[in-house]
Amino acid sequence: MLLVTNNPLVARSKIKIPLEFLKEDHGQLLLKVKRYIIEEQMVLLTHPLSSSIKPNETYYKSIVLGGGGEVIDITSLDYIEQAIQVYQRFMADKPRPNWTEAVLQDFAYVDYYVMVSTVERMGIR
After folding, report:
1. What is the C-alpha separation between 62 and 72, in angstroms, rounded?
2. Residue 44 above 80 pLDDT?
3. 112 near 9, Cβ under 8 Å?
4. 102 contact partners, CB below 8 Å, separation of at least 6
5. What is the rounded radius of gyration, in angstroms, for the C-alpha atoms of the chain?
6. Among 8, 28, 74, 114, which one has the highest count of C-beta atoms within 10 angstroms of its own C-beta?
7. Beta bridge partners of 19
8. InterPro entries per the record (predicted)?
9. What is the DSSP pairing of strand 62-66 with strand 19-21?
10. Total structural domains in the chain?
């Protein structure tokens, strides 16, 4: 299992999943997850479009992947490719504003809360 995030709050959390922190934007994180799905045959355990915040509004995203298998999981690959297309479409239509630090902290907290509640529902404390 691997938690891939660009959210410093998630990176500093006590979530008990191996974590990879990326100092990159939401779009680059999606591409990194796609590489894990293809190269390591990892499987999405959380949906890349989870939460109600549009991808062109927030900088932060956290995604949990499961251990690799023998073949590429086509469903995971399809979901991540759709998420990348949605991200690109939203960014082309309306690029992300230059949010204040306070707003960025709010977005970081939302992603953090979604991830903490998700891993709790997965039975990970």
Report:
1. 21
2. yes
3. yes
4. none
5. 14
6. 114
7. 3
8. GrdX-like
9. unpaired
10. 1
Question: What pairing do the DSSP bridges indicate for beta strands 43-44 and 2-5?
Answer: unpaired
Nearest alpha carbon to residue 7 among 20, 72, 75 = 20
59 neighbors 122 (Cβ within 8 angstroms)? no
According to DSSP, the residues that pair with 63 across neighbouring strands are: 4
Q: Is the pTM of this model over 0.85?
A: yes
Among 93, 24, 30, residue whose Cα is nearest residue 57: 93
Token pair 């709790």 is at which residue? 120
pLDDT digits (tens, 9 = 90+) for 58-87: 889 999 999 878 899 999 999 999 999 999
CB 113 within 8 A of CB 60: no
- Alpha-carbon distance 101 to 47, whole Å? 27
Tokens, residue 75: 């469903």
Read off the tokens for 76. 């995971």
Domain membership of residue 19 as a residue range:
2-121
